[in-house]
């Protein structure tokens, strides 16, 4: 069976429920992982997602901020919770779908100053990565695991519009890239989107609202990721090569999120 996993920082699920329905109709995801839903569990538009054909839900909500959810065509089973957010924000939710354990994250952006001592938000971001890395190091890499979401790090030179400039800006600083790579190494994770579109081709999944035309400005960052364990490597390569892409056309819709969805296909 094909399992299509999508991740999308929707930047308010209630505001963009119609866009989510359009995306689901066009791309037919089996699992849609959402970040920044910006609502509590009881405020989530459950009926709208049922109408989309994604009736199975796992929601971690928070009033006005953060919040993550997994919406699935297939039944969801519990996954071992990951206690990686020291501030107890609604930033992670997990579930098992068709035997695949999926953890959906909205990792802290980290504020503006890349200094752990002077900026508690940046310290929180790195602490989040350290806790996640420690957990992944204890897992069996052969187990089918997907780490997805807005991970708020553009790890590669070609994941930003200007590597030299962005190396001094939170999201692409050396310490963040090091934390991201340590997480990947701990879980032996495979970056499906980069595997599909190798460097040096530039990729982005986020563009600031400040630009009137995001394509013309083209100052994007690849902050949204689908990473899989070695236990899913064969499933990702069963089509001959990984099938993962950024749906940047969604960023051009009316009143869009500043993030575009990212999808990947597994053949189980």
Give me the number of helical elements: 8
- CATH class identity: Alpha Beta
Helix content: 25-40%
* Separation, N- and C-terminal Cα atoms: 5 Å
- Biggest sheet, open or closed, and with what strands and sense? 6 strands, mixed
Structural class: alpha+beta
Rg over CA atoms:
17 Å
List the domain count as a whole number. 1
CATH topology, which one? Answer: Deoxyribonuclease I, Chain A
Order of helices and strands: EHEHEEEEHEHHEHHEHEE
Shape annotation: globular
For CATH, the homologous superfamily is named as Endonuclease/exonuclease/phosphatase
- Number of E-state strands: 11
CATH architecture name: 4-Layer Sandwich
Q: Strand order of the main beta sheet, please?
A: 3-4-2-1-11-10
Descriptors for this entry?
268 residues; alpha+beta; Deoxyribonuclease I, Chain A; six-stranded mixed beta sheet; five-stranded mixed beta sheet; 8 helices; 11 strands; 25% helix; globular
Describe the structure.
- 25% of the residues lie in helices and 22% in strands.
- It is globular.
- It has eight helices and eleven strands.
- Strands 3-4-2-1-11-10 form a six-stranded mixed beta sheet. A five-stranded mixed beta sheet has the order 5-6-7-9-8.
- It is of the alpha+beta class.
- Strand 5 and strand 6 form a beta hairpin.
- The mean pLDDT is 97.
- Helix 1 packs parallel to helix 2 (46-52) and helix 3 (120-137) packs parallel to helix 5 (174-187).
- The protein has one domain (2-267): 4-Layer Sandwich (Deoxyribonuclease I, Chain A).
């Amino acid at each position: 069976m094909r399992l299509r996993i999508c991740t999308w920082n929707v930047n308010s699920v209630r505001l963009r429920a119609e866009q989510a329905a359009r995306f689901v109709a066009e791309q037919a995801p089996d699992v849609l992982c959402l970040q920044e839903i910006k609502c509590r569990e009881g405020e989530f538009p459950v009926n709208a997602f049922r109408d989309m054909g994604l009736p199975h839900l796992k929601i971690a909500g928070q009033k006005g901020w953060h919040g993550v959810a997994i919406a699935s065509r297939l039944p969801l089973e519990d996954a071992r919770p990951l206690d990686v957010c020291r501030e107890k924000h609604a930033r992670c939710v997990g579930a098992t779908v068709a035997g695949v354990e999926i953890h959906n994250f909205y990792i802290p952006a980290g504020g503006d100053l890349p200094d752990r001592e002077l900026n508690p938000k940046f310290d929180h971001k790195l602490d989040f990565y350290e806790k996640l890395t420690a957990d992944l190091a204890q897992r069996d890499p052969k187990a089918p695991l997907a780490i997805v979401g807005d991970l708020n790090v553009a790890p590669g030179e070609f994941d930003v519009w200007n590597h030299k400039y962005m190396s001094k800006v939170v999201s692409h600083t050396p310490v963040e890239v090091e934390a991201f790579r340590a997480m990947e190494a701990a879980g032996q994770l495979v970056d499906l989107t980069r595997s599909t579109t190798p460097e040096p081709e530039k990729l982005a999944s986020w563009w600031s609202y400040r630009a009137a035309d995001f394509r013309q400005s083209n100052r994007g960052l690849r902050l949204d990721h689908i990473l899989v364990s070695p236990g899913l490597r064969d499933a990702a390569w069963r089509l001959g090569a990984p099938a993962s892409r950024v749906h940047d056309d969604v960023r051009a819709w009316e009143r869009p999120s500043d993030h575009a969805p990212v999808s990947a296909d597994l053949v189980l």
